[in-house]
């Protein structure tokens, strides 16, 4: 055994935590394992759409890293740079800048959402990448409905009630389905909001949803979503985003006060630092690796997950940037690293995808598992069973199961959570929300006339012909 004792992993996502757990089992305790990540938890991204639709609480889709690991030392810190020659990295921590020595260093720091993909996206669209994004979108939905209760201009009300999702991949389809379910189940708490005033539109630039799945499943998803009242705009590209408007490539303008963007990633900023300081080879922002996931030309460095470009020997193609591949790479890298330390030969990454599935709303899903395609309720149940199984730690699994079960009997949560501290209670919050303190006497205000309330018709406003969201409470 060589004296290469310090194994440091950067990133506490799917790849980093799976690797640490696998190494804990494979390596003797003489090896020191350290995981550095800038958040104290790992986010179960495939369930972020469920947070948007309040099917689960945000805490249910995140797992504290310290509870996932047994003997790996966890350091909450943001890695700033790597000094390869001296075998150490620098990171900012709660205790200031720290240096951590390594013998082996694994890059597993993922990617970021790309808000520069389409002009105006950063200013006017909401990304869905972090749990904070999901909670923000959920709050925005509740806020739009609360505002609709107070507005009387039908055009403005329609704009507020229109939610546009950009991207018809897994996250886009799941978010659109969740939003439709959420709006249907919470509308009864907003009695002045008419069903016809609410709409969800899904924009996708190709002709088929879920292009990673067989065409028949993409079509099944589209059929179900259209029947549910979701407006599908396939083969439609967004040209730019403006305030409350998406301008399409053909010049058409779609008005909607909330735009959720599920497309586009960009490299983690650390990649640029490593390119500059280590002359690390990358392609399209992903770190180039050898077939065994070691970094090209730099012994002791390894890369896995979304930040790495890893060839898959089973298909002769690049690995997909998905959780499934991140986990498979982490498991194999653990064996490769253990083998390397025992001076055995490492193996090229090889993985046969087991399939994919998506929840499409109203207790329906589409799935392809081991080449077998199915849709509807069975696919939705399989989706839930899989994610329950995959959710790390028994505690989180039980909480998730309890939450899903309880939500069948109780109304969906409509808490618009504001993290206001006592010291901030008198300040005007950003984003146009009302302050907690009473306004100064004489402050100008738009008067809400009694007829504004009573005048809001019980029958729908005259509306442009468009499908409306159908269905009532969902599970
Ligand atoms: C909304 C959404 C839905 C998805 N749905 C699915 C799905 O259904 N199925 C599927 O297979 N995949 C899905 N994915 C993709 C999947 O989440 C990713 O492929 C997977 O998370 C990649 O794992 P990773 O460990 O490489 O990166 P991440 O999970 O992104 O983890 C990276 C970690 O590195 C940390 N980090 C970043 N920079 C630093 C730094 N400088 N210093 C220290 N730590 C740092 C981050 O905090 C994070 O913990 C989805 C993704 C999103 C956003």
From TrEMBL:
Chain positions covered by the region annotation Disordered: 422-475
- Domain FAD/NAD(P)-binding, which positions? 6-330
Q: Which UniProt keywords apply?
A: FAD, Flavoprotein, Membrane, NAD, Oxidoreductase, Transit peptide, Transmembrane, Transmembrane helix
* Superkingdom of the source species: Bacteria
Q: Which Pfam families match?
A: NDH2_C (PF22366), Pyr_redox_2 (PF07992)
**Which top class of enzyme applies to this chain?**
oxidoreductase
**Where is this chain compositionally biased, Low complexity type?**
459-468
Q: What is its EC number?
A: 1.6.5.9
Query: Which residue range or ranges hold the External alternative NADH-ubiquinone oxidoreductase-like C-terminal domain?
Result: 354-410
MF terms per GO, please?
Answer: NADH dehydrogenase (quinone) (non-electrogenic) activity
Q: Which InterPro entries match?
A: FAD/NAD-bd_sf, FAD/NAD-binding_dom, NDH-2, NDH2-like_C
Segments crossing the lipid bilayer: 369-389
Record field: catalytic activity: a quinone + NADH + H(+) = a quinol + NAD(+)
Tell me the protein family, please. Answer: Belongs to the NADH dehydrogenase family.
**PANTHER family from the UniProt entry:** EXTERNAL NADH-UBIQUINONE OXIDOREDUCTASE 1, MITOCHONDRIAL-RELATED, NADH DEHYDROGENASE
Q: What is this protein called?
A: NADH:ubiquinone reductase (non-electrogenic)
Its source organism is Cupriavidus necator (strain ATCC 17699 / DSM 428 / KCTC 22496 / NCIMB 10442 / H16 / Stanier 337)
This protein's gene is called: nrcN
